[in-house]
Amino acid sequence: MRYEVVKNERRGFRETPVLEQVTQQVTQQVTDAVTRNVSETSSQDAARYDTTTAADELTTDCLLIPHEVRWSDFGERGVYATEPISAGTCAVVFGGFVTQGPGFRRLPEHRQRHSLQIGEDLFLVSDEPLNDGDFINHSCEPNLGFVSEISLVALRQIEPGEELTFDYATCDSLPYDEFECECASPSCRTKVTGQDWMSPALQVLRAGHFSPYLQRRIDALRASLNR
Length: 227
Prior knowledge:
alpha+beta
């Protein structure tokens, strides 16, 4: 389209009716586009900050795989897979409140039992009420293993109906959660203690899946023995 401009002696340039019409059309198109964008953004923000949806789904523990919590054969609640889980899948990320030893030892026993040791005298304490991740039990033949202080991956293919478990010896080095083991696996240690990580056989068996602070301790111990 050809724009026409004529000279006005007193006000410089002025637009002809042709240019005025085009300007009005462009202005209306821009206004409509901005209005649509604002409307879409408002809708997205409303969904993002809707306290009845997103906020209600927040949890200190995050199970990343389909699961259910139900009672086990031993009278304890456990977490069970409801769909196949491939080996190497990140299944759990634990969360909570970090506290050092002195504060941790002042907590009630049930809070201590549902906590995770993540460092030398450093603990991750679960929120209340408990989340699904708090019901993942110990097994001497686990199907989950650590890849960081707070995350577990599937060590093998896990089938629907299998209970999700990890070996407490791969994170605990203090006697805050010791008990008689009832996992009934062929290699059951019968008792779980804060000293289990020191077993040379267990160090080999769980290699690559200890909590990082424990792996550093194991590496230092081995280095001292090789001097």
